[in-house]
Amino acid sequence: MKIITWNINGYRSAEKNKHFSNLIRDYAPDIICIQELKMNEEINNQWGYYAYYNFAKKKGYSGMVVMTLEKPLRVVDKIGLEQFDDEGRFLLLEYNDYYLINVYIPHGGRNKEMHPYKFAALNKLLTLIKNLNKMVMICGDFNIAHTELDLKNFKTNYNNNMFSLPERKKIDELLNLGVIDSFRYLNKEGNIYSVWPNAYNARERNMGWRIDYIFINKGMEDKIKRAEYLNKIYGSDHCPYLLEIDD
Length: 247
Description:
Blueprint: E1 2-7, H1 11-15, H2 19-27, E2 31-35, E3 50-54, E4 64-68, E5 74-76, H3 82-86, E6 90-94, E7 98-104, H4 115-130, E8 135-141, H5 165-175, E9 179-181, H6 182-186, E10 212-217, E11 224-229, E12 241-245
Parallel strand pairs: 1-2, 7-8
Antiparallel strand pairs: 1-12, 2-4, 3-4, 5-6, 6-7, 8-10, 9-10, 11-12
């Protein structure tokens, strides 16, 4: 099974040079979780996927889709937090043996002005996962770099949004629920990121952050065949993350 998560930062701009279509053509994922569609209409689904959307009420903002070759038993698009649900930031697909979650955690604000909202969303997500009765895969943009390995300039960001200790502890809480960071299981090195600022030639200089993840249940480690950030794929300030696991 191949799973891709990607904050696409606007489907129209990402598909302008066929980056999205080429990703599907070249990697043929079984499941692709997209965040930040930034539109309120379905994409041209020419690949035979079942597609499940959660659009934001505000047009051209946020929104997501999960495209899957296997039809789920049910789909849930609300987590129980009004602003979060109105912004189209959550999808849960239930299958026979597991749940798949696509999530887009709020940024939090440069001056942490939106941290109450961000932490409310994280707490809702943690509570939901704690109460699930099957295995789970959690894909998406968490807007948090977990450790010093996960951003270039960690020394100057200890108290900043996306790397503050309270935010990082929320990733710890998630891991304590019995999941692992699928990428870190195979790769303990730094300098591998999933998003880069648009200024200062940051992507070319690899001045980035790793904030896009796929978490999977403990016990599935030996099933991981490949875990790779596809940083040569453009179309967004984020790159896709590919996880391949044995069924």
